[in-house]
């Protein structure tokens, strides 16, 4: 086993008085892909928001041996965590290119920023065709590609993906997930993927956690969960 890049211990989260996460533990390996599965309202989105300090938390969050809980979201981004929220998170009034450049705002290595932009445009050629277009005019799939690209322009150590398949046509989802796999392999970008489409997520991920009302009820290798018919039937609905 390689060392975890992200290690979360006893994480609680709440919105005002409403407690949503009740002490969850999970990890993302260096270079790995972890998925968090669960029904609507289980706390998946909140888990990603908790890692980025966008919600009140208790517990420990470690990134590569450094404790990041208690830091501001901005500092967590600078530490190398990029978040693609549900609902995409692009700046609709800016062009595709402006969105991409904004993604790299914390970086000083301008030459490599240019190379990364080029690589992303090779992965997502549709964005190249639309560089000067306002993000708000893109299709849902293109907006998701832009949101992911913008996050990758940060050259993150860890990419947090919230329901990237949501609302997209199956063909686009397939394409997007293939590219996630390629990015993970070629750049060793670690990923924490929240998904309702369990079958899809378990194909991409190496490790999975199943959340139920803010608690981890099952965890294991993605392969073992994929092959466990009773878990699939009882929890994952396929
Ligand atoms: P979904 O797939 O529907 O987004 P989820 O597993 O991501 O589900 P969360 O969005 O994390 O679940 O929500 C977990 C619980 O927290 C739900 O009961 C939800 O109603 C509640 N919740 C989410 N956001 C807020 C908020 N801003 N204020 C109060 N409660 C919230």
Output the keywords.
238 residues, 10 strands, binds adenosine-5'-triphosphate, four-stranded antiparallel beta sheet, six-stranded mixed beta sheet, single chain, alpha/beta, membrane, branched-chain amino acid transmembrane transporter activity
**Rg from alpha-carbon coordinates:** 17 Å
Total strand segments:
10
Which structural category do the helix and sheet elements fall into?
alpha/beta
Helical content stands at 25-40%
- SS element count, helices: 10
Secondary-structure element string:
EEEHEEHEHHHHEHEHEEHH
Poorly predicted regions are none
Determine the N-to-C terminus distance: 30 Å
What is the strand content?
25-35%
Average residue pLDDT: 94
Strand order within the widest beta sheet: 6-7-8-3-9-10
Biggest sheet layout = 6 strands, mixed
Give the overall form. globular
Bound molecules: adenosine-5'-triphosphate
In short:
The chain is an alpha/beta fold and 238 residues long. It has ten helices and ten strands.
Could you describe the 3D structure shown?
The chain has ten helices and ten strands. It is an alpha/beta fold. The strands form two sheets. The chain has a six-stranded mixed beta sheet, sandwiched between helices. The longest helix is centred in the C-terminal third of the chain and has 18 residues. It is globular and about 45 Å long. Bound molecules: adenosine-5'-triphosphate (ATP).
């Amino acid at each position: 086993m390689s060392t975890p890049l992200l290690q979360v211990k006893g994480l609680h989260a709440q919105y005002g008085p409403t407690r949503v996460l009740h002490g969850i533990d999970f990890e993302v390996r260096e270079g790995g892909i972890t998925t968090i599965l669960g029904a609507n309202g289980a706390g998946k989105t909140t888990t990603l928001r908790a890692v980025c300090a966008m919600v009140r938390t208790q517990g420990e969050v470690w990134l590569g041996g450094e404790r990041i809980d208690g830091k501001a979201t901005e500092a967590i981004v600078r530490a190398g965590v990029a978040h693609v929220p549900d609902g995409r998170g692009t700046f609709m009034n800016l062009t595709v290119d402006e969105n991409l450049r904004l993604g790299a705002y914390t970086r000083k290595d301008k030459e490599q920023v240019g190379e990364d932009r080029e690589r992303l445009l090779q992965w997502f050629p549709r964005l190249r065709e639309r560089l000067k277009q306002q993000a708000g005019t893109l299709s849902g799939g293109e907006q998701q590609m832009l949101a992911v690209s913008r996050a990758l322009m940060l050259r993150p150590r860890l990419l947090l993906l919230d329901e990237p398949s949501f609302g997209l046509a199956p063909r686009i989802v397939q394409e997007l997930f293939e590219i996630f796999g390629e990015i993970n392999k070629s750049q060793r970008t670690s990923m924490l993927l929240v998904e309702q489409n369990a079958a899809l997520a378990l194909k991409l991920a190496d490790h999975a956690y199943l959340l139920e009302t803010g608690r981890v009820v099952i965890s294991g290798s993605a392969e073992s969960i994929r092959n466990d018919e009773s878990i699939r039937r009882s929890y994952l609905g396929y």
